[in-house]
Design goal:
The chain is an alpha/beta fold and about 300 residues long. It folds into 2 domains: about 1-75, ACT domain (Alpha-Beta Plaits); about 80-295, 3-Layer(aba) Sandwich (Rossmann fold), CATH 3.40.50. It has 13 helices and 12 strands. Strands 7-6-5-10-11-12 form a 6-stranded parallel β-sheet, sandwiched between helices. It has a 4-stranded antiparallel β-sheet with strand order 2-3-1-4. Strand 8 (about 200-205) and strand 9 form a beta hairpin. The radius of gyration is 20 Å and the shape is elongated. The two termini are about 30 Å apart.
Length: about 300
């Protein structure tokens, strides 16, 4: 059995009776919907096997394309609620790119942001692009990071609830970023992650040197983190969940039992098993069958 999940943004509820009726007709299911959150999320049991899920997802997306609704058809099995969660940070768990904000302290935000955008789209290699951008950050005081976190960074809606709900239900959570530990440490603590992994900027006399320690946390390292944690916890691949938005997340998303592209670059959205374009981060809970009444704020 499969389950079709329909999700809207909590700020713009859109799962109407008409939307549910159309979904049932498109999917050819006589099952009644299970309401996960009134007008925000619902799911429909759908006959079929895992091999049918992608085609059904595409059929449902095409039918509801004019609606502000995310859809995914997934296996309704014992592995649906995940026990390991890895998340990207920049433009996923937070709404900004930390390296761009750092560059902004030197008046270089637009220049660095253009490089970041190309790297996240997969147009240029991540590691040399990171080294190029880090070199431009030379002499920024380490203390500037605290001010940026307080004044410039904002958490993506639903992130705290996502992580805290997963933790309350026994999942291990890890923030894994191609950004920097100076940011992932405080952000992981604020959101509630068990642990964090990211690149380490080199510092001398309280200022950035323009270098980053090896190895760089990029595409391969993110995937390796998922495998390492999965093996350490003795989990099956199907028990894992990952979310990200950029090209350096692709291998991690592909390795996860459920990889979710969150408001992602086109190539990432096209490759991921599920994608969220309208909902907030609580969409990842609905995809696992959690009802809003089970959320931990």
């Amino acid at each position: 059995m499969l389950v079709a999940v329909l999700i809207a943004n909590p700020e713009r509820p859109a799962i109407t009776d008409a939307v549910l009726a159309e979904a049932r007709a498109v999917l050819g299911t006589d099952h009644q919907p299970r309401i996960l959150h009134r007008a925000v999320a619902a799911e429909l049991p759908v006959p079929g096997g895992a091999a049918d899920a992608l085609a059904l997802t595409e059929r449902l997306r095409a039918a509801l394309g004019s609606e502000p609704v995310d859809v995914a058809v997934l296996p309704a099995d014992a592995h649906r609620r995940k026990r390991l969660f890895l998340a990207d940070m920049d433009s996923t768990m937070i709404e900004q790119e930390c390296i761009d904000e750092l560059a902004g302290t030197l008046g270089l935000k637009d220049h660095v942001a253009a490089i970041t955008e190309r790297a996240m789209r997969g147009e240029i290699a991540f590691e040399p692009a990171l080294r190029e951008r880090v070199a431009l950050l030379k002499d920024i005081p380490v203390g500037a990071v605290d001010g940026l976190i307080a004044e410039r960074l904002s958490l993506t809606p639903g992130g705290r609830t996502l992580v805290r709900t997963l933790r309350a239900h026994g999942a291990h959570t890890c923030l894994v970023s191609g950004g920097f530990t100076l940011f992932t440490g405080p952000i992981a603590e604020t959101i509630g992650f068990h642990e964090h992994r990211a690149n380490r900027l080199c510092v001398a006399d309280g200022r950035l040197t323009g270098s980053v320690e090896d190895p760089i946390v990029g595409k391969a390292e993110k995937r390796a983190s998922l495998i390492e944690l999965r093996d350490r916890l003795g989990l099956a691949p199907a028990d894992t969940l990952a979310v990200g938005d950029g090209a350096n997340d692709l291998d991690m998303l592909g390795e996860a039992g459920l990889g979710v592209a969150f408001r992602a670059k086109p190539a990432v959205a096209a490759a991921a098993r599920a994608r969220v374009e309208h909902g907030d981060l609580t969409a990842l809970l609905y995809l696992q069958g959690y009802a809003a009444s089970e959320f931990v704020g």
